[in-house]
Amino acid sequence: ILAANFSEQVVESFPSDISTGIYYGWACVGNGDVHKMVLSIGWNPFYKNIKKSVETHIIHTFKDNFYGEILSIVILGYIRSEKTFSSLEALISAIQEDIEEAKRQLDLPEHLKLKDDNFFHLPEGKTVNH
């Protein structure tokens, strides 16, 4: 599983009234394949973050690093609210449960069809300057 953080600028552009918590949806790096993902929006209470963060956990094993690539996401549903954990083990266990729930939801026909949406096809030559 690969975790990708959005920049502060992108996080600030999210709707301010979006609930913190764990979401699921689809993610695509550059013009690559579309993969299932779990998204965390919030303060990561376990790590006591001061700034709100948006972290995308792509459910796929990538061979290469893709620093500087465009990350496109579609958020389809909500799994649970944000909470703190008594231990790192409890946090890891919850993340595993979130991933299983995301996989179940994204296999539903109404979610599966969005995997092929044109949103994920970037115009030719569209890249990010490093």
TrEMBL record:
Q: Hey, which pathway is this one from? A: Cofactor biosynthesis; FMN biosynthesis; FMN from riboflavin (ATP route): step 1/1
Q: Does the keyword Heme apply?
A: no
Q: Which UniProt keywords apply?
A: ATP-binding, Flavoprotein, FMN, Kinase, Nucleotide-binding, Transferase
Q: What is this protein called?
A: riboflavin kinase
State the superkingdom.
Eukaryota
Q: Some GO term, biological process aspect, for this entry: which one?
A: riboflavin biosynthetic process
To which species is this protein native? Cathartes aura (Turkey vulture)
- According to its UniProt record, the EC number is 2.7.1.26
Q: Which residues form the Riboflavin kinase domain?
A: 2-107
Which Pfam families does its entry note? Flavokinase
Listed GO molecular functions? ATP binding; riboflavin kinase activity
Among the entry's GO cellular component annotations, what is one?
A: mitochondrion
Q: Does the keyword tRNA processing apply?
A: no
Source taxonomy = Eukaryota, Metazoa, Chordata, Craniata, Vertebrata
Q: Which InterPro entries match?
A: Riboflavin_kinase, Riboflavin_kinase_bac/euk, Riboflavin_kinase_dom_sf
